[in-house]
Design goal:
Helix 3 packs parallel to helix 4 (about 160-175) and helix 4 packs across helix 7 (about 215-230). This protein has twelve helices and 19 strands. By secondary structure, it is an alpha/beta fold. Strand 10, helix 3 (about 130-140) and strand 11 form a beta-alpha-beta unit. About 30% of the residues lie in helices and about 25% in strands. The strands form three sheets. Strands 1, 2, 3, 4, 5, 16, 17, 18 and 19 form a nine-stranded mixed beta sheet that branches. An eight-stranded parallel beta sheet has the order 6-9-10-11-12-13-14-15. It binds zinc ion (ZN). Zinc ion (ZN) binds next to loops.
Length: about 450
């Protein structure tokens, strides 16, 4: 089975050149100019970019949260991802208290197996750390679940104390795993939330006003300090605040292996969205919350100068109807999360590359190559090279689309960017050589996505 992508501009994290790409079965076989080779399928890519498929290392499909479940399952969520030019994701399996890590992993494998249309891996969320769990961490790393997410927020649900966090960090020094941290001071936030509610402050904007930037910065600093003491790398998820970015930058300037991602919502939306009329602010209730508009420039600079290494989505959609509305009279009951799995590549291309904030190569690096490197998928994923998986996006840099819940494919009844026009859109997508999106039409098959056994740190 051969597919030839002809006449496009191939872009990786380091290169940009006109070339043809020959795909044989699941792999990229040959790259050259004017390739004269018979193929079963020919894709014309003149005036288009040929990019490595996007890699989104932070999604929550089919995830129970506060009495609701995120609205996209592994079928609708991975299909929407493919429409947007993403060909791999790393989702989160959750260990609930009293359960084993393997039980959690099996549960999430079952959610994905027959449904995913693109490849997927898992981080393991740990909420209960004991001697047995630590042994299980080693086994999971060997089985390709090589990263573990811990929470410094949500006391009583997900939050771990510093001793447990430190033990988990120490364990990764030996087993080659990576700790991912949700860095917000959950104890402080809980006090602020209870005080606001007691004062009758129940509107969505109080979600943001009770989660100050300094609470994120404090936890980010503490997480990095604990990792420094343990002598291991750390990855901060969904960094939103300039104050937290300063902590990462300071650590990196000292030579520490501190890494962090941000998300499109922190680059394109702001606190002002919480002030939208009625209950509309609930659309943007996520943790950490949207920050002051000035923060956006700081985050873009962090992305340009490598204090931030990845852009993921934290895709966790809840419908306004029946889900977000649970918090109509109490912001603390609004399910946390927003949709984004489908809009990442176009938003970042338009607002990053076209706006002159990052280069085209850096765009590829932030949305694909760097997350592949950090999470043990490179060079199988994250680049266009002979021998790599044929996860390829044909991207039209000149096509303008209007983002709207009515035309996007995520299973949710609103879009946080409703009406926004972006230039740069995905035309055609290959996942391990199979056409998944053909000129804007879905031609993939549920269950064809495979579990990604990821490598540990070497
Ligand atoms: Zn998340």
């Amino acid at each position: 089975m051969r597919t030839l992508i002809k006449g496009g501009t191939v872009v990786t994290a380091t290169d940009q050149y006109k070339g043809d790409v020959l795909v044989e079965d699941e792999k990229i076989a040959v790259i050259g100019t004017n390739l004269d080779i018979e193929a079963d399928t020919v894709i014309e890519a003149a005036a288009k970019y040929v990019l490595p498929g996007g890699i989104d290392v932070h999604t929550h499909l089919d995830m129970p949260f506060g009495g609701s479940t995120s609205a996209d399952d592994f079928e609708t969520g991975t299909r929407a991802a493919a429409f947007g030019g993403t060909t791999s994701l790393v989702d989160f399996a959750i260990q609930y208290r009293g359960q084993t890590l393997h039980h959690a992993w099996e549960t999430w494998m079952q959610k994905a197996e027959d449904k995913a249309v693109i490849d997927y891996g898992f981080h393991m969320i740990m909420t209960d750390l004991n001697d047995q769990t630590e042994l299980e961490m080693d086994a999971l790393v060997r089985q390709g679940v090589t990263s573990f997410k811990l929470f410094m927020a949500y006391p009583g649900v997900f939050m771990l104390d510093d001793a447990s966090i430190f033990k988990a960090l120490l364990r990764t020094a030996n087993n080659g795993g990576t700790i991912c941290m949700h860095a917000e001071n959950g104890g402080v936030i809980d006090v602020l939330v209870q005080r606001a509610l007691a004062e009758g402050k129940t509107a969505p904007r109080y979600h943001a006003l009770t989660r100050p930037a300094r609470a994120e910065a404090e936890a980010t600093h503490r997480a990095i300090a604990l990792a420094e003491i343990a002598g291991v790398p750390i990855y901060i998820v969904h960094l939103s605040a300039a104050e937290a970015l300063e902590m990462v930058a300071e650590a990196r300037d000292r030579g520490l292996p501190a890494f962090a991602e941000t998300c499109p919502q922190y680059l394109f939306l702001s606190y002002d969205n919480y002030e939208e009329p009625g209950f509309d602010g609930a659309k943007y209730v996520m943790s950490p919350p949207l920050r002051a508009k000035e923060t956006q420039d700081r985050l873009w600079r962090g992305l340009a100068f490598n204090d931030l290494q990845a852009i993921s989505t934290d895709h966790c959609p809840f419908c306004m109807k029946e889900q977000k509305v649970l918090g109509r009279n109490d912001f603390s009951r609004i399910p946390n999360g927003a949709p984004g799995i489908e809009t990442r590549m176009s938003l970042v291309y338009d607002g990053g590359v076209r706006a002159g904030r990052i280069s085209l190569n850096r765009f590829v690096e932030l949305t694909s190559t760097s997350p592949a490197r950090i999470f043990g998928l490179f060079p199988r994923k994250g680049t266009i090279a002979p021998g790599s998986d044929a996860d390829i996006v044909v991207f039209d840099p000149n096509r303008t689309i209007t983002l709207s819940a009515a035309t996007l494919h995520m299973n949710v009844d609103y879009n946080p960017y409703e009406g926004r026009q972006v230039t740069g859109a995905t035309d055609t997508v290959l996942s391990r050589g199979r056409l998944v999106i053909d000129n804007g039409k879905f031609v993939g098959r549920p269950g064809s996505g495979a579990f990604l056994k990821r490598a540990s740190r070497s």
